[in-house]
Structures are given as structure tokens and as C-alpha cells.
## 1
Amino acid sequence: MSSERDLPASTHTRRSIFKFGGGAVAAATFVGLASTPASADPAGPAADAADLTPRHYSLRDPHAGTVRTKRNRRGSEPTVTILPIDNAKFRAGGRFDLRVEVAGVTPIDTKVTIRVAGSKGPAMVLSKEALRPKAAGDEVVIVYPELSYPEPGEYTVEVTVVRKGAKTVRSSVTHEVVGAGDGGAKNVVFFLGDGMGTAAITGARLLSKGMTQGKYRGLLAMDTMDNRGLVGTSGADSIATDSANSMSAYMCGHKSSVNAMGVYESSESAHDRHPKVETMAELVKRTRGMSVGIVSTAEVQDATPAAVFGHTRQRAEYLAIMDQALDPVRRPDVLMGGGLASLLPKSEEGSRRDDDRDLVEEFQAEGYLFASTRSELAKVTEESPDRLLGLFHNRNLNVYLDREQVRDPGVLGDWDDQPTLMEMTSAALRVLEKNDEGFFLMVEAASIDKMEHPLDGPRAVYDTIELDQTLRLVREWAADRDDTLIVVTADHNHAMSIAGTHDVRDGAGRDGNGVYGDAGFPTYVDSDGNGFPDDPNPDVQLFFGWSNHPDHTDDFQHNSTFLDPAVIDDQTGRAVPNPKRDPDAELQLGNLPVTSTTCVHTVEDVSIFASGPGSQRFNAFLDNTEVFHRMVDALGIDATRDR
Ligand SMILES: [Zn+2]
């Protein structure tokens, strides 16, 4: 094992920026088959083998099948991968792991040199000792943990691979580094409508406000935001994203891959050994001591809430995500939603754990008050806690329609006292507003997506209305203060579309579908004026179409009880129509791969809305990574400063 280092080629040093201690260099050379003991790797112990199979959530979850099944093909020439990727954008001082992978070489005969240059020449960026996590096979891997670029500018990371008796290989990436923004906002409230494409928003406006002769009788809170733009949602690996890497882009400013968050996908097989980038929770706590709040109708370990703070290649690693949530460098001060199963010791019914740890007690030991019902939430909020943990279901919260309106005991079971998104968010604000340094609050309406997957338009739309009513509440809270930026967007589009109306009086199935002039207007009624139609199944209801779908049957009427559209046939392994859902209706022939039982996310842009200080920054077409940077700009955070 040997390694040698080039001395800095210039005296242009900025070591004062680094608080890590030790030297920083602009270039380093590595020879041979060196390895670092696994225990030295900050990413933690290595897993035994590749395991990207979702373990901690149900295989019925529509996101369980999002793992890439087609592997990259390797050519005969060596390949060099530099992570973070080319064209990535950083905050000066923002933390990241640099990882260089050289594959297709004989390590013992290979010399790898890494050089970092800024606009003024060699840049002293390579601080700490490099790690060599792999010692076998045909790959050389070099990792520098927790680097940062000292100042704004353009940086190039160049890798040179010299091999005995073979051609030298070079590869480089360019990184853009920006400084602190103008500021103006003390707090940010970030709303994420999961899968909230235009159809969900239009559907919410039609059902909640109604329409007379083509004019809406009112507007959503979203509609009256000061600024609006569009977001492109694709990831580093694919045009089609899932919630993990899309939310990760919003929360880190870096692209990731499907199922990953807070990391760049690397050649590692273990979910916890991929190179990390700093998350929003880590950044605002490290630099300013801000509070962080997370409110979701999903399990709090689900992709969107977890991406606010977490790092993993595999979003289904719920237990590892909970361990990360307890680490004070990123621990949310308010954490509310579902997902109690991942905190309960294995002896308790419904627990997802394989040990006796009680994470509720662990949070309580850190000063959190805990609520597991709506009534308890109201009670603990009165005690003015500094930290709040609220978990109101073992799994995801029920959707608004079932939780608040239908309230079927057979559907709700023991979970018959769940709060609304409005109630959770209101409680979160009361805790977070106590911090003079400000806060970052993420509010997710998760089940828009979770109901679009199984082609349930009305349930998705009711949850969109719930998000909008929560937005109205936050805007009222912020109305008499000028220090809070509010941003509303979605992580990806979805298959749902509104094609017209379905009038049951015109006939069954497709005979009842009215398009163009025959569509007219739906007849939803909101007699109590709460913004949610009394009946999701009126004579004339929205005709939902789906751009992608499995084989299924559809009578185009609301299903009073939720049912999946398709199931897997045990004999063939193919998705077939669920015989219990709309059994006598016409077959809709699927267009998805034959194993898909639900529809999938789509690639089109999503809307973004913003109000408050800094909101003009969102009046544009934005790459999803840019949403992070504009929120950080609005907060005026200088990432080179530790608090
Ligand atoms: Zn989804």
C-alpha cells in the first residue's frame, strides 16, 4: 500500500476557511491497491452485499418497483466517474464528499491523480485524508469526505489515470460555486404537493370553488401567490424521477438518482456508503441555528420528509433514516405525520423494528413532547413545547376523504383521531416561531401521489384541497410579518388528467363520459362551505383520464371504498385488473410494463408558486436544484460560516 501527494503548486491558500484541521492541497496522487479500513469511512460499516430490495415498506407501495433493473454496460476502456457530477452547483462552504471511481483497471498498475483548480489556479480544496474504500476487483476508488469550496467561482476537478503500458486517461468536471445570497427572509415554509401536477390543481379548484359559465367562483390560495414559475424535475440518472431524488434536489441543490436522497449514486452496493451532499436541515442548523420542522401526511420516513435531512441510496431504509433523524446535526425540531411503526420496539404490535429500541422515548429524552392523536396534539401544543414529535398512524395517514369525511371505522381502524394537515401545520408554527434565528418548515400533502398511483382522482383532489387550505392558513399566519418566504411546488407530475365530465344519467362507463360541449360542468355541492364537496360522487363528476396505466377496468365513477386498480396474477406475474374494483366495467388496456399495477410519475414540468421576501426569484423556469439555491439565497445564508 502506498500513496504519495503532490505539494501545492501555488501559495494561493485559503486554509482559514477550513475548521477541520489538517492540511488542504490542490492535488493528490494515489498508486496501487490501497484501502482504508471500513471503520474509517464516515459513511459507516459496509453492508455485506448489494441489496437494493425495499425492505422496510410494503411491496404494494407503488415506489417499491422503482429500482433500476437495467445495469450500466461497461466498455473495454477504463471509465472515470467523478462525484459530484459535472455542472453541479454549490454554495461556498457547503459540505460534500468528493468521490473518484476508476473502473476497468488493474489497481496495482494504476496511478490516479486528482487536481482541483479554481479560476485563479490550483485550489486548496482537498482537505482531510483521502479514504480508499475498495481493495479488490478492477476498480480504484478515492473518497474525500466533507470537503467544501472556499469561495465563489468556477472549479475544475481533473482526474488523470496513468497505467503501465497503456494509454493515459483523463476526465474532468466543472463545478459552479456561489456565495451568500441577498437575504431578506428569516423563515421559509416549503409546501410539497407530492405528484401535484396541473390536473390535481385544476381539479382542486373545480371541486373546491366551482365554476359558473366558465368562470371560477373563487381562487385557490395557490392561485393568489405573488410569483409563479415552472420546474423541471429530472434526476442525474433519468428523465423520470421519484420523490426521493426530486425532493433531494430541492433540499440539497444537487441532482440525485431514483430512490436516493442527499447522496450521489456511486458504485457502492451498500445504501449508506454513497458520497453525501449537505441537506437543508444540516445547512440551516450548522450555519444559523435555525429550527427545522417537517409535517407530512405520509410516514415521516417516506422519501419527501426524509430528504429534508437524510442521506441514503435507498429510500426504503426507514430504520436507518430514523437513526439519522435523531442526530442533532440534522434532527428536526418538529416531526409530524405517520410512521410510528418505525419507532416502536419490536415487541409492540405493528412495529417495523427488529430490535427493542423505543425511539419515541429516545426523542422524549431529547426534550420532545409526543402526541399520537389529534386530541393529544391539541393538548401538548398548549404546553408550548420547544420540540414536538407527532405520529398519528403506524403507516401513512388516511387520506382526507376517508379520515375526515367518510370516517368508516373499517377503514380507519384504531386510527380514528388523526389531525388534519392544517392542524399539524398550525401546531408546528407555534413551536417553530419561538426560535429567534428563524426556521425552515416543510409541509407535504403526500397522498395526492399515493392516490394518483392507483387511479383514484377524487381522493387525490381532496388531498390537494387540504394542501391548499393549509397554505391559506400559513399565509394568514405570515400576513402581518414580512420575514417569511412561502414556496409551493410538486416533486413530479403524474398520469392524471381531466378530460371532461362523467354523467351517470347518460349511461354506464364510456357512454357517460362527456367531452367538449357535452362535458358541461360538474355538480359537486359544498353545502357546509368547508371547501370540500359534500359528496365526491355527484351525478356529474370529473372524468379523469390517465396517460399511463395497467390493464384495469373503470366505470368512471368515484369508488366509495378505496381499491387498487390492478393486482399481480400469481401464475403469470403480470398485472391484471383487480376483480373487486369496477368488475363489470370496460377494460382499459394498459400501456405500462406488464408488472406495473399502478400508474407512474410523468416527466412534464410542475408549477412553482412563491410569496414573501425573495419570492420574485421563483418567477422563472427553474431546474429543481435551483429551487434550493433560491431559498438559500432568500435566507441570505453564508455556508462558509459555522454558527
Ligand atoms: Zn409516487
## 2
Amino acid sequence: MTKKLLLSTDQSAKSQKKGITLPKGMVPVLKLAPMPSDANFNGDIFGGWVMSQVDIAGSIPAIEVVSGRLATVAVNSFIFKEPIYVGDLVSFFAKVIKIGNTSVTVEVEVYSQRRLAAPVSESNNHEAVKVTEATLTYVAIDKNGRPRKIEKKV
Ligand SMILES: CC(C)(COP(=O)(O)OP(=O)(O)OC[C@H]1O[C@@H](n2cnc3c(N)ncnc32)[C@H](O)[C@@H]1OP(=O)(O)O)[C@@H](O)C(=O)NCCC(=O)NCCS
């Protein structure tokens, strides 16, 4: 884990403003460019859009663990740290942090590269900003929608 990623978890608002790079050595499970239709009435990206994408992003490593059908049982925490703007390129990083009997808990971190389509200028250096962090729990379910034991790989 890079120093910058460690910093990003509890860094102050001041250092967050300075801009950071995307986590090194990690591949995002999802990368999206939100559209004007994803904005709220202030023109920033709607929180519900972000929550939906975070749910999808978190489910990707969870599906690999449960090998089959699953359902989201809980959003344990969800923090909108900074807004996302139309024109940003948004990267979703997800990692499994706990595997239970029937459930998998995943941590999702979201970074936005500012106005990637706009030219680089004094006020726009395409910096990456950590915009959201969340923890979600998914449950492996059977064909009747009931919890199913996860076969743990040794
Ligand atoms: C997911 C669902 C099948 C779980 O059924 P349930 O009877 O509540 O399950 P259980 O109480 O046996 O709990 C199953 C697992 O979920 C975990 N869990 C349940 N509620 C939880 C919560 N609020 N937070 C974190 N984990 C939770 C339990 O700890 C257990 O994990 P473990 O087996 O690894 O120890 C059921 O709640 C459901 O169908 N929910 C609706 C799902 C849905 O529609 N999601 C949105 C769309 S995907």
C-alpha cells in the first residue's frame, strides 16, 4: 500500500485539497464518467448515483468469493467526502475485508479525477480526489433467496 493511500484514509481536509494520485498497484473494479443526467439540481453528481455504483463495485469482489447469487444486506457506512462533478473520471476500488459463514464485507473507495476532458491549466491539473468511502455487506443466497454457506477456499 502506498504512503499516499494510507494518508488518504484519515488525512485532514487541508491535505485532501492538495490532491492525491490514484492508489498505486490497485486496479479499479469500475471506472465511469458520469453524465449531466446523473447530476442533482445543484449540478453536482447525485448521491444516489454514487451509492448505486458503489453497490455494484462492492459486489464484484464479493461475487468472486461467493461464486454465485448474492444480495446486499447492509450498507454499514457511507461517507461522501467530496462532491463529484460532470466531466470527472470516477474510479471505484473495492476489496474484501471479511468473509463470514454466509456474508462477505467489502470496503469501497472512490476517487475522482477532476475534469479530465478539460485542458490542463493553472486551476485544473486533473488531480485525483478521494470522494467517497463505504463498507457494505453481501450475503450469498440460494435459489430461494435464503442465506447460503460460503465454501471457503483454502
Ligand atoms: C439478505 C437476506 C437473505 C439475509 O437473510 P437474513 O435472514 O437476514 O440472514 P441472517 O440473519 O441469517 O444473516 C445472514 C448474514 O448476514 C449478516 N447480516 C445480517 N444483517 C446484517 C447487518 N445489518 N449488517 C451486517 N451484516 C448483517 C449476518 O451477520 C450473517 O452473516 P454470517 O452468516 O457471515 O455470520 C435477507 O435479509 C434479504 O433478502 N434481504 C433483502 C436483500 C435485498 O433485497 N437487497 C437489495 C438488493 S440486492
